[in-house]
Queue: 2 jobs
Job 1
Amino acid sequence: MFLGIDCGTQGTKALLLDASNGRVLGQGSASHDLISGPNGRREQDTEQWTAAFASATAAALAEAGVDGDAVLGIGVSGQQHGLVTLDAAGRVLRPAKLWCDTESAAENQRLLDWLGGEQGSLERLGIVIAPGYTVSKLLWMKARHPALFEQTAHILLPHDYLNHWLTGRACAEYGDASGTGYFNVRTREWDLSILRHIDLSGRLEAALPELIAPDKAVGRLRPEIAGQLGLNPDAIVSSGGGDNMMGAIGTGNIRPGAITMSLGTSGTLYAYSDTPRISPQPAVATFCSSSGGWLPLICTMNLTNANAAIRDLLQLDLESFNALVAQAPIGCEGVTLLPFLNGERVPALPQASASLHGLTTENLTRANLCRAVVEGVTFGLRYGLDLLRESGIRSERIQLIGGGAKNPLWRQIVADMMETPVVCTTHSEAAALGGAIQAAWCHARQQDADASLEAICSRCVSLDERTAVAPVAESVRAYDQAYRRYRQLVASTYGQQTPPDLTPVAS
Ligand SMILES: Nc1ncnc2c1ncn2[C@@H]1O[C@H](COP(=O)(O)OP(=O)(O)O)[C@@H](O)[C@H]1O
Ligand SMILES: O=C(CO)[C@@H](O)[C@H](O)COP(=O)(O)O
């Protein structure tokens, strides 16, 4: 039995997997709050993660009716890029600064200039550092919290922090490390010089966790944690990884040929590659995978959070919101919402705010507003898919995961807007499933050095053909029109900030 945990932005999900037959025996979840502040601050208390870990795990074990002693391994997936700082005694110094925090966008620009711009960043790191990546948070912390910065003895990503809490060991693996901005994705090594540029004292280099390969164990549970969680003290903790890397494993995206799209707090799109094929497109982040290869990825910052903002404004529950989306026609009778509430990573508009266009007395309806936000966030992913395809990535189908994938209408919107068939995997909590699968792989490798991840994925991952939808020609044409309008509006609203490849296309 293996436990997969996914510490996402809005909550933690736990899943108990019988890896011998691929059956998911139990699941649990618990939510987190965001600390929002001025200038795009988005932080979270790490105590919420550990508390949510414990309650989601208890719920999964209870649903399965399984004793925690039966758990042989745990794999932790976590929201990428967040910064957790610990002092020498292992105490958390301040709330975790998250992937969606744009407060350090100016620091990111300064670091990008130091790297020699997008080209310099690509050459040196294999990725273009973007607002939200860990590295700019370090520069921000040095300026804003110098006393805490001086006490920093460990710099960890969210899932590294949870692994440290579980085992007492500070480790990192390549996939999540590649989203820090101080890691070379080609050579899979830390890039020390950017850390030295931030701080000459050597403090940051000394605070780096040890890198391990994705099939290696971080260690075993600390006895007090095993007791607290009611888990087997001999259970191993696998390397874990970023939620997208674990989502790739949990959708079987460990060989070239598939594209996974996640509709979570963020919108992501990624495909496995067995070589570090660095995309010349700055928006495509060629991260490492947590299965031995690479994972070119696109991430939009505003997705279900933007839906939630409109839902809250109109005081709607999820069901009523989805019903209103279904009532409005494609294109929302001319209403377009550019959903960049907290700046945006793809398209690269870190300083943008959201805007609403095309309102008239006739079309200003709740249904059009609800649909306009769903269309607006999905257009960002359409732009991302075009960039991924321009980088040479092909796939005949999109595998859809994340909370939003549960909505059949959104699945059809994705199929029509991307002009590509869509299908969900049987288990929508793909990142938690990926964690459990990786733990099973790591456990198997301890007995047999050749144990294959592919064999476990083929037992545990399947597509749910009942969710399969194909694009409808008439809708594809209607979205194409609406997407042209979206591009024109981005260009006219954000002017010179607009990425050159997002300028309007001729009709
Ligand atoms: N049926 C649905 N239709 C639309 N959105 C949904 C549906 N079910 C869940 N969601 C949204 O999915 C989001 C959570 O997705 P999830 O992938 O768990 O996020 P994260 O991992 O970022 O915490 C929530 O904002 C929720 O409103
Ligand atoms: O920043 C990225 C990817 O680069 C995000 O995808 C985060 O990893 C957050 O994920 P969710 O909470 O939306 O799952």
Job 2
Amino acid sequence: MTDHWNALEALAQNASEHSILSLFDTPGRAEEFSTQTGDMLFDYSKTSIVAGIRDALIALAGAAGVAEKREAMFAGEAINDTEGRAVLHTALRNLDGGPVMVAGEDVMPGVLATLERMRGFAREIRNSKITDVVNIGIGGSDLGPAMAVEALSPYHDGPRCHFVSNVDGAHIADTLRGLDAKTTLVIVASKTFTTIETMTNARTARAWMTDHGGDPAAQFAALSTADDLTADFGIPAERVFGFEDWVGGRYSMWGPIGLSVMIAIGPDAFDAFLRGGQAMDRHFRAAAFEENMPVLLALTGIWHAQVCGHASRAVLPYDQRLKKLPDYFQQLEMESNGKRVQMDGTPVLVDSGPVVWGAAGTNGQHAFYQLIHQGTRVIPCEFMIAANGHEPDLAHHHQLLIANCLAQSEALMRGRSADEAREKMRTKGFTGDELERQAQHRVFEGNRPSVTLSYPLLDPFTLGQIVALYEHRVFVEGVILGINSFDQWGVELGKELATSLQPVVEGTAPAEGKDGSTARLVAFIHRNRDPA
Ligand SMILES: O=P(O)(O)OC[C@H]1O[C@H](O)[C@H](O)[C@@H](O)[C@@H]1O
């Protein structure tokens, strides 16, 4: 692998001698550096990647064993080897794809039976007196469904959905205020059913329901792998939707964790979402790397983060309803690929995954794009735009949205030279030193890379394609980095310390053994706390 990384570094040196804009002097660049699957287009031509770089990146992916590991994943091998688990979220959307074997057993009958139970339950709730659904979960048991319910609001014809994640009592208090306990369904979503935030919120919701005339025995459902714990909590088996440990939390919205989405948009639209994911799986398995959208998206990411050294990437959906997508991708990418060692326990050879962040366009333009355009660090951008909105009466809004999205990627690439800036200031009447000073503030270096994903309409099928595209992108990047993208040991230490600090904060244990800063903060909080 070291040879491949070295070769890419040398290519990056050469690439810095040509501007991205100048690459378009070669006819056909946009066609050659874009790929399509179904009706979705991924354009990576506004990057410094040229044919030789793409070949080298594909060779890197080949050397890392991406094709073999991809098949191992789909074949149910225990590729999450620090936890000894298979990785089969793809089975959850394998609606008609045949058997999927785990340890010699076909898991599809179980997956399809649970899906059918979910459909029955969703129909029952949609036809009942339930007006509001509260999904209590955190991380992978919250971000995906919360994002999808908002993304698919034009298809939302079921009860209202609310999402409570934070252990901060403000979250559940604000959410329950105004809800009718007699017509609310609470879904406790937790793979492990031990997560302290979720279990604390679930108990609070149960007490609220009892106190306000609802019936927790009839109005609670659970989504979990731990049926013993859901039973202990008092949720009857017919309202428990289980899944297996081969579904990672941040990959779980395709199965029971997506129940709130199914209740919101109905089983048929949820099926379309699954089919979008399945279509992307098929493309990912079948397409040559040169045309493979998840592979090319991953290679673009590797080029920018690990080869060119850009430490973050911005996800910029020009779609108000996708405003939670950056948060969702943050967990998907950063929890998966923020790792210090390779599979064999030795340090990673290059930087691990980048910081992923972003916001919906055009809002971000009026907040942080200044830094993206003129800050000293390069931030590769990932734009998303639909050809159509869901508001035919407001088509002029959508034209403006598209124009803004395309304008940003063009501006990032093209920039504005010092001469252009001087000319601009000259026409405004500036001269001499003041002209020069004013002009410098208006220079955009340009040559800033971006990619754009475009599709006809953000419908359930398309959302399924987008989510699966990014899941596979993360997988490919993880394989190239040599890491396990499916564990998350890095979240453990903070949890353990929170458990040990709880009695200290409550005042039932001394702050002994804690560092001076922590002890002082505890003392300050104790002094300032209102008496109970
Ligand atoms: O679904 P749960 O078991 O409650 O887990 C919820 C979340 O908690 C953990 O801290 C993990 O880092 C996440 O990957 C997970 O999604």
